Fold this protein.
Amino acid sequence: MAHNGNRRWIRGFTAAIAIASMAHTAGAAESLQDVMKRRQLTQEDLMAAAKTYVPSGKRDEFLAFSSGGQSGQVIVYGIPSMRILKYIAVFTPEPWQAYGYDEESKAVLNQGRMNGRDITWGDTHHPALSETNGDYDGQFLFINDKANPRIAVIDLRDFETKQIVVNPVFQSEHGGAFVSQNTDWIMEAVQYAAPLGGSYAPLEEFNDKYRGGVTYWKFDRTRGRIDPSGSFAVELPPYSQDLSDFGKLGSDGWSFTNSFCSERYVGGIERGRPPFEAGCSAKDTDYLHVVNWRKAAELVAAGRAKKVNGFSVLMMDVSAAEGVVYLVPEPKSPHGVDVTPDGKYITVSGKLDTHTWVYSFEKIQAAIAAKKFTGKDDYGLPIIALEDALHTQVPLGLGPLHTQYDSRPGIAYTSLYVDSMVAKWDYVNGKLIDRIPVHYNIGHIMAMHGDTVKPRGKYVVALNKLAIDRFNPVGPLHPQNHQLIDVSNDKMQMLYDMPVPLGEPHYVVAIDATLLKPIIRYPAGTNSRTDEISPGKTRPGEEKIVKEGKKVTVFGTEIRSHITPEIIEVDQGDEITIHLTNLERAEDQTHGFTIGKYNVNGSLEPGKTATFKFTADQPGVFPYYCTEFCSALHLEMQGYLLVKPTGYKPTAVTAKAGTQYTQADYEKQIQQNADTQKVIDEVVAYVTARPYKNDPMVSSLMDDATDQLGKVPEAKQKAEAAAAAGNWSDAMLWANQVYQYQVKAADIGLRAKTRLDQTGATPGN
Ligand code: CUK
Ligand code: CUA
């Protein structure tokens, strides 16, 4: 940075202090009527805008976690603003968060490998928030991968993926992730039947060798990880199990899974057979699977399960004999099964039936207790008669799919795929109440806490498969359309269209934002993927490069605005390991890291340690830098990786600096440092005159500023020593380093001041 530029900095700081206390002056304003006219807005538009607009600096009431469909990610957005806040990398490498680039996150992705193969994408469908006593607790998020049967665990303290488990028994899945009411189990049901454990059998043996099933993953809440050794699966007939839900309150201990091809039809156009779609929707009913999973868990614990690929599977003969699985007829081509908040009813919709069916858990239990069955299926599983399980059937419209619940008792919302509508209805009294058109072909519907024991009402979001004419065209592939609907009044009101340009989100869950308590920084040196302190953790001043034969290990740090070390010198062919620790404590002060042409990419949030490994097989000079614009001197946050070619013979060269400095330069710098210190003192006086310690954010900013200033004495001493020796260049450069620490301290201090002003803190304690 040029010298006169530094002058401007100081003036800028002084000006900033002055401006911050000035009132805004208003210009000639357009009236609301003018804007309505100019933008052709109706009163209704204004109402919708007022209901969704979140002014700058204000926050959303709910946070939605949406599956990212084919992106293999999770999308986080606010409600009612529908502003996207984050993409959480889950099954897919994602460069912005360096997911799949540092060794720590590679280890998570590697847990999802299958048959020795990297699987670099996922078809995410159903996110599930962890629950305590049946309501969201804001601690964990789970999501499934339909294509490659897997479940991932995301910790909501840092919104990072911590674990991926591969289903060792089944070849595909769909009905996951769903959690039991205290999140000790996570459910994952099969979609397409296949021989268990991945073995081969010809399609002619479909009925005998192909199987469906449900997996119950044991979740260890204290560790925040799934425990595969305590998990088990329940074998089911090859009926194409679809979605699932856990019972709650009175129905806790049971789970429900619908199916859509109990015909067990095998298509084969090339064999002259009608396609799957014909044969799989031929019968008028399919089967709802009612599973006593608690009993299944006891039987597994008692050693009654078989092992498939080392995983416990409770086979159908045991389930039939012990009363674990029951079948109930359900509407044609069902999709979606949703237990009501009171746990008393189960709703199932059939895509090819205009009714949604409501089952009574009490009636089902009575039939089981009385052993009142109409018979057994081909696999010996008892079938309960529809009339012995049904509470009511309610005509809602064409293509009903998924159901969510309202805060008002008995009220549900169901998506109507074919009609492109949302139906509001009463599942206790079996009445349709209201319908609203959506655009277009809605899949899931989601209400606030809408699948818990305590729905919050207020809004629902329609997850539409098609956007068609809703947005500016961007090529033949349109975004998805999430539509926000106000349900707080008798009539539903459409509020907002939100394009989702990342994949096809199947399901979303939304939580009261106050229940989330994400961290600001990690404990210094944290491997964020294991929550443990990394062996690569490096403290300031302890940076080093260790060489052992061909292995080079760098213990480095990043802080505004330098990477230590700044020079890494290796020989061609060396195996490089770089550990980097972000020493920052300030909120949002992330640093990046890249070495060009070596595919090295890091994102280091405050406190994180990340590790990068590569072989320096290409000789040459490779600049590295921080990829986050983290400070005014961000561009200077740089360094060089020097890879010496094999057999390279150094010639004697003396380094000659680009610019030589004089005593005058040094003295000018000293004066400038003194001026800057005055600004800092002013800011410090301003902040400390106010009760800044009451605000954790300001308090940590001030800690950070103190940190930066703490480095001043050492640099100052070096400057003075060089000046005493008449080495004016070094003296000036160290004095300038003092200035850099001051600028950073002032920068942070000013941020603290701004925050105090915004929160209205006044002098005093
Ligand atoms: S599924 Cu996509 S609309 Cu995978 Cu839950 Cu129903
Ligand atoms: Cu750190 Cu840019």
